[in-house]
């Protein structure tokens, strides 16, 4: 089947910063390596600044631009809206897009509050009735090593889960001189490390274990409460200018959790772990085996098979680049690793495949809401002397 | 100075299981590699079973035996009592020995309760007035990589501590068929993973940071509540026999903590982490650098120096076998690593050195009490919906 | 500058197997992340099978196709010919293309013999006089960690090079049942592991050290001399069918070498290292420091700085994802690693940049010839009882 | 059985530097952890300097001293002579001791020349006829991870061996200012890195594979030909004084080899690998699996099982501290690692066990001679343009 013979999937994307760049690469690349049932078209890019969005569209390969997201979602030539804006606008855009009959891919976290996330999940459920689909962008699920880990858990290779330890460690604001950004303002970002990176490890551990968190006990901390206002803005960096701004979100979040199957969990999300750049570390110990992953070595999964005789038992360093591994056969020969952006390409593959099949892509907005409820419980526990706080709706 | 010209230090040791074997090796070995100011003599070994203690004394190199610990501590030819029994007897023996004017080295945890530990610390303080010394055996402080880490922290190489994450992961009872042992009975062991191995990481992190824990939020769990009674007994293993016994201690403990300087901490102690054998993992992130250690690779310390330019910054894998490293110059050339037992030898070295100098060896009973208070707060928090629980006496 | 305002660079690519796919991705992706002075156009794809090349062009994004490479290189709308065919056709195509005034990017190894490579280098030198450029595709030079290593060597950070150890370990034909392929036939591939993967480590070590190999002593081996003929063909794999074919190339090559600055070197290239998938391992020890790299962990460079005090000296695990690192600032935030294909994108970037500047891109055909001479000396030494064999033209 | 009821094995040891210290610790420690059939007694220590040997005997635990090795080997109260002197005296002492009816343990390398080694092996064969035994001290065979590797090879777990790569990397004279020592003088040490550390990897790879090297191609190098004479002497270090001495041995040796079963091998022994302290790295790839070991992480063996499905195949990091592992059950619980000196203790265990059983301990002097013949072939190849040089007596 040639690409021309595949039905198009016309995409309108809103936002073109870090996430917009990653999504664009995925939309462009997925059909080059995978046999997609639909042919993605980079139809229109949305952004408030006309010059900025035009330059980005040219750079990133989008055919047209809009400066008003409402116009973008109403366009007849848009089948799917891809939301890459900060969290404070997710709910409004996503709900409007779904009501306009457009499929939606929304970056994580789903929203800045449980109330918004509930409204979004409700809108998604309503839209699903007429075949309109919504998906939230927890792309780390699509790292092949992570997908392999989930497969091994599902196959029972580690047995009953007893321990989950999850860390998301960064250091990009460890320096008190690092400037303010929207990610440090509560009204834009909703929360700090908790929602930005903690959300990922909450989703990943629920995905890997196939279980849900039922309660948490938490502490939040803001180590640096005032920072220089930025002289210029960058993706995650920038340079400090004159004046100081107030950091209104957490710098770090630590919490204990309990999974629905009884496992104990520890979570830590911080932007203050000097020397750790994007260390998503997850280890799961079960009654029959263990799994360990670190995104700083993203093409590797460590697996301990408890059924192996003690003489030769040990964590196996699986280089997850074999054709037998999830997503890998479309890419390169064994040992030729993938990078960060490939998770986004796999996200497009799974989304497009589900849309063509008329099925619900995962993670759904309901999955995103589940994460939001955990984040909310974390904040409430932290505000109430770390008291154990059940997760609403979990079981 | 020949060995004969050094004053003797006549040791009476009580208990000859796992810890007794390790202590014996240390007493025998320390004077062969270090210039000790006193000459340790393995004078007498105590144990209840006459045949057992005699065989052990022969094997381990002790000159004489006693079957009643009270007689042992009263002997005129004993200068120091080394207590290697389970925790339920520590307080009684240690206090009696101190009152009998004997120096005491007591295995960890100091005691099975805060009340006992307080009495022991009081007895130690009283004894110190007359030059009688007490020390608790947190030997992991004497792993060269750990001692180097503490030195780097003290020198300010990592700045202000912001994060501590500590895990002590084992798997020796992950199998529900693993039999009962005294370590699984509350009246003998006091607690389970918490006191046995969690105590180590509480002490280590307080030692490394030079700070104290001021509060905790905790969850404890017993995954397997009934186990086969042992057909035979072994150090940590054994084989199951007929009948079942009740596990009355925790299998795993997870807790959050706050250090006196403001750092956030996560702790996890478990015997159910399949594939992890004795993984004491500690990472400390500060404002100027980070340190990471794993006892499964015990001759290595990882150090991130935040003052290094980004181009060449990275965690350094320091092979801690150079003459410049703590304790190492007495041993082998660079790259020729040490093992588990060397920590005990270093403990003897530090203890003997302090005794000869008339100084307080560390960790003191007060340090052991501080750990006990943390363990107690952990248990109270776990029993009270993980509510944040301040550590008594911490500041 | 918008993309439309940049002069086009119209590319004709010949071959669309493994390398063709990688090159296509690079041509498509480079302008999306880098500010290229020229705008690459995927003008025409060449391949002998009309249906095959048409399907590939559709999949890979090429606007047109040719089934005769001679027609492709004569097209007026082609500025650069990208040669992704097996090595036996490199010389003929590359020389013809250069004589037709087209820039050439030729996959490695440059040729199947020194004679061919000499002719190619001569043609390249002649073409350069009229501004037509030729480059050979040793892409691993453009892995950021490798480029950083070369920079550190050039800056003198490791001092005088004393040892080079280089291994390229794969295992894709370790199984004697793995079928025949053109890569196992001497008349198509020139040599086996030696030219296919050994060529990479010869080039990489010459690139990293900035020195040339002056002599070698070698052994070649073919472990499995007959293999099943393939029932179907695949990139590197396939399934065995009926009948047996003869393997006429080496399965493995090991050789000693001496670099122009006096360093000793060991080289090993094999397709029989079970469990090693694409392990390009290079370690360089100098008088002032050391560097180590393994492509199976491609975003990391290990650097030992000999000027560091012994107390804190150790190999630094540099996660080569900082904006300060080569090529990285165009991509993602720190810690978000790149993959195999990014080296090809960087190759396009460097090639296009050099073309626009009227400069010679590297590695040149002369560099490719230098590698070919080493491979030739390896074969001659192996055929002459491993006798030390000087490299022609090296100094 | 009490220690008193075991027959004694009265040891006379000659030499008390680095190796003498290690051997003493082994003689003292072995009976404390293993049920030895004989009871080692540290009867007499030999050394030329009366004061030095007396101090050493006191420190190391030897009951008596001799300043003339000839007197030591003639003593009636000596059953076994343990030779820890530099290689130039091995032959004379060992042959005399064997002829005096004493068992001999001789440090490696067996001798400084093939002729000496042949005479020693002949003397050992002659002595064996009357039950007198000789063993050479390649202790790295007794690192549990190495012994486990040999066991797995013998069990066929890696199939037919195809590749051996062995490196012994140190850096203690990488600095040109490091002073002279006897290890850098040909008449005392025989050779440099080749005999000192290269001998170990020759023996280890022959031991691990159960095969012998049949030929080599080699290059030797002395990077620093003049060094300061030592102001003081130390084990391996010391400080430079006035005047310069000539280094008459190799600083580094690299060679290719072929094993009797057809495997290709690369060897590298150097004291100039900055940052590598005692990195004995051995990897063996077979038709069914692979093994990898690095002494800098000595309690770990990496094993790739080629029979594992690709989905979960990977090198297993076996922490070699389980009771099922060689030598380990005598020591500590799982995860509590051993150190450098334990190999010497295991050597004593195996030697004493063989003596009591009237069996030949391994490695024998014939094994030591086999290593010496490889070293000799390496030197001859290096002196003859690296020409392939068969190993005398190998098959």
Automatic annotation (TrEMBL), chains A, B, C, D:
The keyword Membrane does not apply. Residues 9-128 form the Gfo/Idh/MocA-like oxidoreductase N-terminal domain. One of its GO terms (molecular function) is nucleotide binding. It comes from the Bacteria. The keyword Membrane does not apply. Residues 148-291 form the GFO/IDH/MocA-like oxidoreductase domain. Keywords: Oxidoreductase. This is Gfo/Idh/MocA family oxidoreductase. It comes from Modestobacter muralis.
């Amino acid at each position: 089947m040639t690409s021309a013979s595949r039905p198009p999937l016309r995409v309108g994307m809103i936002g073109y910063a870090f996430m917009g760049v990653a999504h664009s690469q995925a939309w462009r690349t997925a059909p080059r390596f995978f046999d997609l049932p639909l042919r993605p078209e980079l139809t229109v890019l949305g952004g408030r600044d006309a010059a900025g969005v035009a330059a980005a569209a040219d750079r990133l390969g989008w055919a047209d631009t809009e400066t008003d997201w409402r116009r973008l979602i109403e366009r007849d030539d848009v089948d799917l809206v891809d939301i890459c804006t900060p969290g404070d606008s997710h709910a409004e855009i996503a709900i409007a897009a779904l009501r306009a009959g457009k499929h939606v891919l929304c970056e994580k976290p789903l929203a800045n509050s449980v109330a918004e996330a509930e409204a979004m999940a409700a809108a998604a459920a309503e839209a699903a009735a007429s075949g309109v689909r919504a998906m939230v962008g927890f792309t780390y699920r699509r790292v092949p090593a992570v997908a392999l880990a989930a497969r091994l858990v599902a196959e029972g290779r580690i047995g009953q889960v007893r321990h989950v330890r999850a860390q998301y460690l960064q250091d990009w604001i460890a320096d008190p001189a690092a400037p303010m950004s929207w990610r440090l303002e509560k009204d834009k970002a909703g929360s700090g490390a908790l929602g930005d990176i903690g959300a990922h490890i909450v989703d990943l551990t629920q995905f890997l274990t196939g279980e849900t968190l039922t309660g948490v006990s938490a502490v939040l901390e803001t180590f640096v409460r005032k920072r220089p206002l930025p002289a210029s803005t960058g993706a995650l960096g920038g340079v400090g200018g004159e004046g100081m701004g107030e950091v209104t979100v957490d710098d770090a979040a630590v919490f204990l959790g309990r999974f629905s199957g009884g496992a104990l969990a520890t979570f830590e999300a911080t932007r203050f772990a000097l020397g750790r750049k994007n260390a998503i570390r997850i280890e799961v110990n079960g009654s029959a085996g263990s799994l360990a992953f670190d995104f700083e070595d993203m093409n590797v999964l460590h697996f301990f098979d408890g059924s192996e005789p003690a003489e030769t038992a040990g964590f196996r360093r699986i280089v997850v680049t074999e054709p037998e591994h999830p997503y890998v056969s479309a890419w390169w020969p064994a040992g030729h690793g993938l990078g960060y952006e490939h998770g986004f390409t796999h996200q497009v593959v799974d989304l497009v495949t589900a849309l063509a099949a008329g099925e619900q892509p995962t993670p759904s907005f309901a999955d995103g809401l589940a994460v939001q409820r955990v984040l909310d419980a974390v904040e409430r526990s932290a505000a109430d002397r770390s008291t154990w706080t059940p997760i609403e709706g979990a079981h």
